[in-house]
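re: that chain from earlier
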Amino acid sequence: MRRRCGQVLAAALAGTIAASAATAQHGTFDLALFARNPRKAVQEYLLVYGATLGVTDTADVGLVGDIDTTGSEREIFVTQQFRGIPVQYAAIHLHVEKATGEVTWASSSWPAIPPSTSIVPSIAADSAVAAVWRDVSCPRDEGEVSPDRLVFDFRAGASAARLAWTVYYLRRSIEGVPIEGRVYHVDAHTGAILGYGPTVMNGPSAVVGNREDGSAVALDIRPNPFNSMLTIRYDVSGAAHVRLAVYDVLGREVTVLVSEGRESGRYAVTWDGRDAAGRSVASGAYVVRLEAGATTTVRRVTMVR
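^ sequence. v structure.
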């Protein structure tokens, strides 16, 4: 029995030492500052612990987001930028204890980009659009190709991040309904297509869990990407105050579409791509946020002009 107790004590001590080592390695995160200024909180954390995650310059912190889970931890996501240009496929992911701020887990895919790397493209956006048209088998009267912005394309196994144009391709049926979509990355120096991925055109409704009273909310957004008009449908089973708003990827509110009480039922609202002042927004990614009672969900949408 003594031997067993000794083994249990040794195991407990080993666990304590391992936990202390993990805390020392990943440190603590200031959640109070994060609530006021997310980017500053991330930068202050990386000033101390960035070296273990491959970060040499906190100015490279791009977009910051988080998931406040129902458990004891909060997940924080950080994307990379280089001289203001987003670095694709590069991010940091942290798990933070809500009670203590202890960072219990951290991962990074943050590439080192030489300071001499050019942020000036050799080819114009029009040339990138032409490269995409050459790649797709679509008559021009049935499709649309639109440039978005410059990014650094960095994929797993790549030797360096390459400056690229992001270009959206959208093909329509005879009725004008989007039936195919792609997001291309075109090398901004050579015009070569680095790769592309599909966009979600008409996904199914996303049921967003249940509230304490057993009611649920579903959110359905079509088409996505969209050009001029977005239709947002949502179901509410159970009376609740509903707030439906659109944000840009920096978390700034663009416009509020709904803010009032709703009874059980299905509702629909349209967004014409304008902000609260009536100005047309730029092409790019936006976030639709639905709050109904105690339930919140978000969906990402893409405007292609």
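The chain has three domains: 15-108, 125-198, 206-303.
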